[in-house]
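Please, structure for the following, as tokens.
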Amino acid sequence: MRVAVSLEPEVRRGGGLPFGMVCSRWVCDPRYSANARTLYSILVTYSDTQSRDTGRGKPYRKELASQLGTSVSTLDRVLLEMEVAGLVTVERRADPANPKLNDSNLYVLHDAAAWNGTWEDPLPPGMKAADVAKDILEARRQAKREVEGGVTGEATPGVTGEARVASPVTPNVYNPVHNPDRDVVDVRRTTTGSGAAGDAGGCAASGKTKPQKPTLDERQAVEEVWQLLPADLAAAVPRNARGLQDAILDALAVGTPRERTPDQLVTHRVSPRWARHWAAEFEAGHLDKPVGALRAMLERDPLCNDDRCDEHVNVDTGQSCRACERTREDRRPDQGIPQQQSAPRLPDTRPAGGETFTPPPFQPEPAREGAGIGPSAEYQQLRAAQKAGRQSRGRDLTPYMPTT
């Protein structure tokens, strides 16, 4: 039988802060989730209960989860977020009668240090505490799976050894006379979720994979890029635009010959393009799609073969790109490249000197005699000659008249 809990949970604050006083700096900080800020306010109501009676009981995890409106597991994640942010320290105590069992927690709030100016913020600017807590939880799960031999390595051996074939399906019987042949069956494909073919059985992974979440270093690099962008561009582009974070990571190209630091990416690629074209579009009010403009500024120029070149400048030395200079020299017309010959020009027939050329006056063609509406006399004579020739060859052009 388990020994009764000997230590009750409590919240300690210190600093001589009056009851109900909260740190507005924490409550208004968007880097902390709404649950974290709400739980901080709830813990304040339980603080220093040794010197006063709140009538609210003790801050057991189940009670805190009920007041927060979440499950106990969600409460634990919120507490981890608050620990990462430096808002609270959770001292997990063991039962003195049975050290293998956990006893109630001791919560120590650090808002008094925030009031007197001795509190240090452990998070960098723009980094959300919930994202850091997720990385910590994922690392713990990964370590646990590796210790227990989970699914992170190869597929675990199955129980049956080989994958089973689905039961045969016989054709439909349309009438009592039509009996299907028992030897002709429709064998379905072997299942892929219960084992592998051959002796190596086990569980096979599904074909669908979830997109990998960016790591903490990648998120910090993206945040540095946002901090270095021109102010007008950063204000016009929403940070939560779909696919924009991936576009920034592709432009950074970490681990490749085209890798850029956030400063190199913005200084040598984004800022020159913004100053040359997009800034004028923004000032004129024509920048209707700022996300697409930022994507275009992040893309690398494919005309230069040098991986360290951006906008004709070497990002490592800050000097002009030699590959771009050679390309410009090759395109010059005075390097022995045959030029396309133009068509010969006609001689100039304009009068020499200061004389002016005066065209002759326009003279309309005189009207012919008998010209007017209807066929001309020549046309009538030609038609008469053609008709006479047909009659001479024995062709009768008179219309057919029936005899009575």
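The longest strand covers residues 98-109. The radius of gyration is 44 Å.
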